[in-house]
Structures
1.
Amino acid sequence: MKIEGKVWRYGDNIDTDVIIPARYLNTFDPAELAKHCMVDIDETFAANVKAGDIMVGGKNFGCGSSREHAPVAIKASGIPVVIAASFARIFYRNGINIGLPLLEIGDDVEKISADDVLKIDTSTGTIENVTTGDIFHAHPLPGFVQEIANAGGLINYIKSKN
Amino acid sequence: MGMTMSEKILARHAGLDAVQAGQLVICDLDLVMANDVTGPPSIKEFEKIGRPVFDANKIALIPDHFQPAKDIKSADLAKIMRDFARKNKIKYYFEQGRVGIEHVILPEFGIVAPGMLIIGADSHTCTYGAVNAFSTGVGTTDLAVGLATGKAWFKVPEAINVHLTGEKPSNICGKDVILTLIGKIGVDGALYKALEFTGEGVCELSMTDRLTISNMAIEAGAKAGVFPFDERTKFYVANRAKKPFAPVTADDDAKYCATVEINLSELKPVVALPHLPENVKPVDELGEIKINQVVIGSCTNGRLEDLGIAAGILRGRKVHPDVRCIIIPGSQEIYKEAVHCHWIDIFIDAGCVVSCPTCGPCLGGYMGILSAGERCVSTTNRNFRGRMGHVDSEVYLASPFVAAASAVLGKISTPEEVL
């Protein structure tokens, strides 16, 4: 998948409670979750995010609760890919499982700022910062985890094995 | 080459003689668990797969987060799970009045046991490492596939050896141990890794201490937090375990990626300041921090021993006039035992709220939500921004000793300041 979009930039340890606070977890409707995505740290996000925009965080992105509502809320907001220095492990699994590509790039994330424009090829993990000219390469997914991502998520992958 | 406890459990469940850290394996699961927040979306995903449940006797569905239902939408979630449990004859479904907090009741009822491999759609599923199991939190899609196939994929984690030595002082409990550890290694200090506890200090820790410690392994980013099987574990599981079990022991030459030393005798009562569990400071270095609320409960510290600690401090004392103190027993059994011990009398006489078992305020669900600018000392596990209510409220994580003492004095306090 090739993506070009504007960056929403967040810091380290973005937890799933701020991605989607528990007070909204009495539903799992993606569109409803998207309305409240990031609200506790960025009230402007839900109203202003555009389909194709890219979310970029620091280290340990998605830490905390296992709620898959968090990557679902991000995906339903129109974000096609999240980039971070590192991801918390449950969030990482959840992203792959629901077909939301997550690209881990370590300290290179410091070279991406809010409102930069990025061009991304998720199949190769290549990220071009169009604004600065920098090029980064995401860590590849191991073994059959790449196959899960290629299938668009774990349910599709399992169904293809049925 | 020797194996860690985590490697041994994963190897056994992958049908392999040995595995190494970094290896990808597909494992058979002994138990698949979800709650009323994560269960319903898992059920929706499960139904897309088009298979029956893999084994109704190896599934636990626990309505504990927003139940007894806090609102209509939460009642709808509970109904989806209840209907699914009935239709599929799920063995471990517990209705209100019989249910408790998932990570309290599964060990208490012996549904989790040594050597087992468990996934749960709740990040604190790592709690069962305390009974020498490998258990880890997953999201709803992994859980759905677990319900259908009884399998999950794992990357075998490297392990950090948490080497415990020394005697535990009487005002210290498991919460101080795990907060101190998270303060040392940070909230991503064990990312993608397992914590494994070793050393003669392990025998100093009660099962309640161990359950608290394993529970918060995720707060260091860990996949699991596994304790060795010893006499205390044996005693705890002896009359509980539903099935025969096979404990694991780390090999003498097991390979760890790092070692962290903790001398229990040097520990002091600590709190984690807002808004991360790694912001750990000794209580006696804090100065005066006034509070509005105390919560004693949760999957971290809602066990009988925790309530006993709180009752010991609140006996004959009153909750500070400016403070609301909310006590939440983790299970009906614990609640009943606390009644028998007259601890509930002590709590009510002191001016506490006593609730039925629920996750309630821990995740900002209900039963003690904070207003803007309010501060809470809580025995729960997370102090993220907005976790217990308003985005401008604050949560300080602490042991039941510190929480109860703080309830009496209206400011964050050590038990010594009260006793």
2.
Amino acid sequence: MDILSFLVIIPVLTVLGIIIAKDPKHTRIISAIGMGLQLILAAYLVFAYLGERNAGNIAEMLFRQDYMWYANLNIHYSVGVDGISVAMIALTAVVVFAGIFASWKVDFLPKEFFISLILLSTGVFGFFISLDLFTMFLFYEIAVIPMYLLIGIWGSGPKEYAAMKLTLMLMGGSALLLVGILGIYTNSAPDGGALTFNILEIAKVHIPIEAQRLFFPMTFIGFGILGALFPFHTWSPDGHASAPTAVSMLHAGVLMKLGGYGAFRVAIFLLPDAAQELSWIFIILTSISVVYGAFGAIVQKDLKYINAYSSVSHCGLVLFAVLMMNKTAMDGAILQMISHGLMTALFFALIGMIYGRTHTRMINEMGGLMKVMPFLGVAYVIAGLASLGLPGLSGFVAEMTIFFGAFQHTDVFHRVVTIVAVSSIVITAVYILRVVGALLFGPIKNPHFEHLEDAKWFEKLSTVTLILAIAAIGIAPLWLSNMIGTSLQPIIDKLSMIIP
Amino acid sequence: MTSFSFTVLIVLIPLFVFLFVGLLGHKMKPIVSGIIGTSGLAIAAILSYFTAYQYFFNTEKIGGAYQKILAFNTVWLQFTDKLHIDMGVLIDPISVMMLIVITTVSLMVHIYSIGYMKGEKGFARFFAFLSLFSFSMLGLVLATNIFQMYIFWELVGVSSFLLIGFYYTKPSAVSASKKAFIVTRFADLGFLIGILILSFNTGTFDFISLTNVNGAAIATGSGIAFLGLSTMTWSLILVFMGGAGKSAMFPLHIWLPDAMEGPTPVSALIHAATMVVAGVYLVARLFPVYAISAPDGLMVVAYVGSFSSLFAAVIACTQYDIKRVLAYSTMSQIGYMMVALGVSGYGGHEGLGYMASMFHLFTHAMFKALLFLGAGAIIHSVHTNLMTEMGGLRKHLPITHITFLIACLTIAGVPFLSAFFSKDEILTAAYHSNKLIFVVQLFVAGLTAFYMFRLYFRIFWNKDTHYHHTPHEAPLTMTFPLIFLAIASIFSGYIPFSEFVSSDSLPFETEIEWWPIAIPSIIVGLLGISLAYILYKKESTLPHRIASSVKFFYTSAFNKFYFDEIYMFVTKKIIFNYISRPVAWFDRHIVDGFMNSLAWITNVTSVKIKGFQSGQLQQYAFVFISGAILLGILFIYLFSI
Amino acid sequence: MNNGIPIEYFLVTATLMFFAGVYGFITRKNLITMLMSVELMLNSVNINFVVFNRYLFPGQLEGHFFSLFVIAVAASEAAVAIAIIINIYRNFQSIDVEKTDEMKF
């Protein structure tokens, strides 16, 4: 049975179902059922994967399927997963599921909204299962394009500007990426023979170092733009601020992870020599991201801007860890992607819910909300604590793995930048506590806020799903960390052949 | 060998209570959640006492030394092949001692809170948080490795944050909680970096292998690395920074006085008896490493401790808020414990300071919890924190008065009460190691006696203040803990502590050195008490006149030597205005401006280019013809040569 | 050659006519005048055709045929152009070429 293709087929069927649906209510229910199925399928995939591994299957990728769809250029629809993609798929399923419930009350063109949203998630799922660079790129574009519509139509504030900026910057990244991918493709058979897009086959050959030097920066920056690499992160604050709730959730929670995932699966894995050689430039950029994002978040006034900058900081840590190129740090990078995905989705969901009640996102206009909406308040505090790395929640596990992994390097440069990155935990604490204090605690400033309602059932469902996932990773991280760790082995092996 | 695996329950019971009360608390009657919380802790306390009994009396010693027992251990997260974080329970003399301290004080505070918090909104939440704190603190002391300790360290920090900010509608409480969290977080940054370096050098987190005197870990990293100190010393100093933050040592002390915004039972439990001594416990945990491979680190500990104790004692003499006086007194007493560790050597009688520190930690927990709970009872009945608005309370609050007096006598070091013994050991250790520190600590002992009795006389004697409501004695749930702790304060000094706790786990004998240690300390204490008696027994203007005669010194002490202002300056001015705002501006205008200007350039270019499509036929014709002519000339030029 | 008028005379005349036409086409705002300028250019070309035929290839007739052909095309073109101009006049109430810039950008 081709379990992986179902991950793409179910969203497509859901989209078809929504097209047939008569009224908004049906639309919502169909989306919820479709994404619920997707969540179950993802959970099943996790178990099936672990089962296969326990049964002794040591293939690099499991559940392989391969169909040729454009023979002239040797492009395949080739799918397969390892522990890393399984983890990312599970993350996506959780976030999308929560996102559907967070946008339960979209009343302007709901049908089109859900179609775009689910189309986007199709792209993301397709990206994570693909092993063929071209197909991967195709799914990447499928994920990016609906974003334009979602922000431009259902957004708030200067939405056209934000949508345009986001799309253009990501398209710029795509352009670099396409060149990079084609560069890898044309060098994929240095000893003669058929050129290929297949990642696993490319990984076996040794791409000439000159080509690597040229194409590594392209692919890394191409993916890095999506992963909010300094100084290409500026689409993020505006984009997030204008996007509707579910889109912010998906975007920060999942789409930005495509960047980190791609950077490490394509840029580092396929072009290891250049990665080794040029990593210092990007390490400096990412450590700037980490600290800079955190400082930037301190003075923001809009809740969504705070979170967007915080995402810059946290996603910077992902790329930072990827570039450290040892097993522990990379393990941490994947954990951080998952952890950040969940907690930032939770943040944006909550901000959306709070905004829906107070009609403002300015923290200086709020205060004392804990008293009127205890559920949302507690959830916000939990999200905040996860973000500042409280043990028992997912952020801590990820950050510590990164720091300890990065600190394994024996040279001064890597260790100094690690200490710089570590110091971000204090700055994070400052801005998180500032927001939590101003938003939830203290007396109620605005008399209109006295009668706000607490969360509704669908909001609670959305929130609780995410909190459970965050806490589960935070309390028992070992299985996840091991699942990722074993899948990192091929990459580590490939890198260790190069490192002198 | 007795099995200690049941000790896991000591940690887990408060966790379950937290989850249960936290999730379902709002559905129960308040009192039910109180009873659940209290009985959960009572079970934990009974288990702890049982553990102590089993450990000290029924467990085989090897070579006369108490063994470290790994009661439970499981891998929680694997970093590399060597580095992994375990979750487990480590039983050894100091962890067992801490178990007793924590569960006892926590149980008393639980009982007390049932009375104190009665009718408060969020009663269930309060008990949930108390359980969370107890869970984290117990996990901290039972940690098998330094990283587990860090994990619980952070959890303790957050429970403290939640409890300080318990009255979350009160802005001062919110900002105090924020301050406490951020300051300790900053200190924890040092702790974390210390762990990074330490684990990198030694390749382990595990306490047993770290502190093994003959092990490989302790000998690593001894080469000079940076500024004349070895890597090991640096890492341990950074670890101590974490400890100093939690234990409110100078200059990371500023959060502690503000933390008094929390409910008083919380101050008693967290900010007097248990959490603030975590730093002392941390140093004690790693003591062999400090003593053997980083004696310079211990010097730092000693001087920081000594200076903090002096600094805090001076400030305490000028404060009017009774909880703040107690907070500074806590800081000063923790300074004593740090000093004791800092001057201590390793093994046998050399390790007297180590034992004295733990001893003082134990007695301090009892009498300081008593002081805070007593202060709580006073505040509960007169509804103010300021001692200027009190006076003559001995008639109204007889039980509180007696127990408070006992606590004051204890802390002042009056002979044959518990703190006399423990403080005496500390002074002995200091005397044999560093005379300067000995003199300072002796002076601080006098100051302690003075400010405590200043407090005592102002509250219970002095003028007869008129109160709106006549103060009345607290209910039994509140007085019982007071009486219990008073008894503990009197008698806990008679525990032969050196039999149980010592730096190398080998029991040794101690005796009081009357001269030149005990007698001067008694004299100094009595001097302090008499001075307070003269100044504050009756209402008088004398204190005021003395204060104005040393006005500059007095105002700076009264304003806590302006440390809050300095910190405010650093955070508000430097970080906010000179780093964050420019960063945000830079991001908006330079980085984003660059991206926007790319778009702008494209736009402008496009506007210019589209001007060519003017729709003016004649322009087109002109361009066309000019082009044709130019081409013609070009071709003629090219082909005619 | 036979009648003694040098070819340059014809060519200079034709060139002057052509550039007069170009000048008129570019500067005149009236569509009819512009049409007339176009005719002027066409006629200068006709002259060239005939002259080159006569002077370079006297035994052949292609140049003459071409100029007849151009005259025919010019006639039909004038008809079409005037039809367009009339339509423009109906739309804009003017035959000023500067006003007919609806299709710009």
